[in-house]
């Protein structure tokens, strides 16, 4: 049964249109989570679709493969412009693409979030893991699903660390940019997506401190 508070949240989220970059990776899991929270979703496959959305999620996958797809039709430059202006949330490979510095190996990025990221820092896919840890989101420890996860080695002065794993940040925010080195879309806990929707809502209302 939907409570009045939940109904209010769903109505407010329904005012937002969130894009999920759907070139590869686990984009559909993000879409399903957003739909459960009441947000309208657009699977973004062409650069022109960026202009139809209030915020964007860049999902997990393979960051170097993302870059190959983004070379077409000037997509990379349009995406770089979008993330400089509107709320964007990157998970795993998406966090790598948002970072200012990428290593293991060095590769191009959107240069949007003041962090340094090491790719595949926790080993290969067989070394993937699920853990729970406290966060600044409130509530109980958050379940975190790590799959060939990158590791954030450095954060800039303006970056807020919202959760850590073994003293390394795994959930960070800077301005309108949010990034996670894990996969919140693979958990039943929607708090990270709720945070992003709140960031989008505040940013759209003119609050640039979101």
Task: Describe the model.
This protein is α/β, with parallel strands linked by helices and 210 residues long. It contains six helices and twelve strands. The protein has a seven-stranded mixed β-sheet. β1 (17-21), α2 and β2 (40-44) form a beta-alpha-beta unit. The longest helix has 14 residues, at 191-204. The two termini are 31 Å apart.
Could you give the topology of this structure?
Layout: H1 4-13, E1 17-21, H2 27-36, E2 40-44, E3 55-58, H3 63-70, H4 75-85, E4 88-91, H5 93-98, E5 99-103, E6 113-118, E7 129-133, E8 142-146, E9 151-155, E10 160-165, E11 168-174, E12 177-180, H6 191-204
Parallel strand pairs: 1-2, 1-3, 3-4, 4-12, 5-6
Antiparallel strand pairs: 6-9, 7-8, 10-11, 11-12
Q: Biggest sheet: strands side by side, in what order? A: 2-1-3-4-12-11-10
- Bulk shape: globular
Model regions low in confidence, pLDDT < 50 over at least 5 residues: 1-8
Percent of residues in beta strands?
A: 25-35%
Could you spell the SSE succession in H and E letters? HEHEEHHEHEEEEEEEEH
Fraction of helical residues: 25-40%
Query: C-alpha Rg, in Å?
Result: 16 Å
- Record field, number of beta strands: 12
**Euclidean distance between termini CA atoms:** 31 Å
Structural category is alpha/beta
Average the pLDDT over all residues and give the rounded result.
Answer: 90
Helix tally?
6
User: Main sheet?
Assistant: 7 strands, mixed
């Amino acid at each position: 049964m939907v409570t009045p508070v939940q109904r209010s949240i769903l109505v407010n989220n329904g005012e937002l249109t969130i894009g999920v970059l759907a070139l590869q990776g686990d984009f559909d899991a993000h879409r399903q989570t957003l739909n459960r929270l009441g947000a309208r979703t657009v699977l973004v496959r062409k650069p022109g679709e960026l202009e139809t959305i209030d915020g964007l999620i860049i999902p997990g996958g393979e960051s170097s493969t993302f870059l190959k797809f983004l070379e077409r039709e000037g997509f990379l430059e349009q995406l770089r412009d979008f993330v400089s202006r509107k709320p964007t949330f990157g998970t795993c490979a998406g966090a790598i693409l948002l970072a200012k510095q990428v290593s293991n190996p060095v590769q191009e990025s959107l240069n949007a979030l003041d962090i340094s990221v090491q790719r595949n820092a926790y080993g290969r896919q067989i070394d993937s893991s699920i853990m729970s840890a406290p966060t600044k989101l409130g509530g109980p420890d958050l379940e975190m699903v790590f799959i060939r996860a990158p590791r954030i080695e450095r954060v800039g002065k303006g970056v807020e660390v919202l959760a850590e794993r073994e003293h390394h940040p795994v959930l960070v925010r800077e301005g309108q940019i949010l990034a996670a080195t894990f996969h919140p879309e693979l958990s039943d806990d929607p708090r990270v997506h709720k945070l992003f929707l709140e960031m989008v809502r505040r940013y759209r209302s003119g609050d640039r401190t979101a």
